[in-house]
Amino acid sequence: MSADTDRRSDLPYYSVDILEADGQIGHWGCPASSVEDALAQAREAHPNRADRVQSAEFNKFHLENRLPGSNGKTYRGLLLVDGSRWVYAADEKDIVHGLKPRLDLANHSPDGFAWGYGGSGPAQLSLALLADALGDDERALRLYQPFKHAYIAGLRQDKAWEVSEDFIVIMAAHVEAQLRARCEAA
């Protein structure tokens, strides 16, 4: 890993509340060293809403990068010299393979993956990561948009990243729990 790679997965994960124009509270997540850092990142990532960033709190569902005894994959997103992005998975033996975009499930971005905002490239990345880590295409299809907002949109666009398969599985369970709670409340 190069010295400029951002080891975001080593930091605690924070949920930031942003007051939307319609009066609803939007949620944005990011790894950060403190509440103040999370708020600053949210303001930087959302300059048009910087004055409406409300609060940040530690997200209790964030665990260490790899669970004890895990032999899962590690996913990495790299920024290449030509400006393109490459995402790959490395297994426990460091055998690397490029992450398949899973255009067969949904075709949001045939031009490739992206991260750090809520668009089509991040949607494709979210779907591909979930499908690969969960091994369940139907579940990945149900969860990829909220997962994109909960995690992928919070990654820095200008930095490489790394995340464990375990973390994706845990975040997927967290997203499912949030979706169930919303359905039950409705």
Question: What would you say about this model in short?
Answer:
By secondary structure, the protein is of the alpha+beta class. It has four helices and seven strands; from the N terminus they run E-E-H-E-E-E-E-H-H-E-H.
Report on this model:
The chain has 186 residues and is of the alpha+beta class. The protein folds into 2 domains: 8-58; 74-172, no CATH class. The protein is built from 4 helices and 7 strands. The strands form 2 sheets. A 4-stranded antiparallel beta sheet has the order 6-5-4-7. A hairpin with a 5-residue loop joins strand 1 and strand 2. Helix 2 (120-134) crosses helix 4. The radius of gyration is 16 Å and the shape is globular.
Which properties best describe this structure?
2 domains; 4-stranded antiparallel sheet; alpha+beta; 7 strands; 186 residues
Task: Give the topology, please.
Layout: E1 13-19, E2 25-31, H1 35-45, E3 53-58, E4 74-79, E5 85-90, E6 96-98, H2 120-134, H3 137-150, E7 161-164, H4 165-185
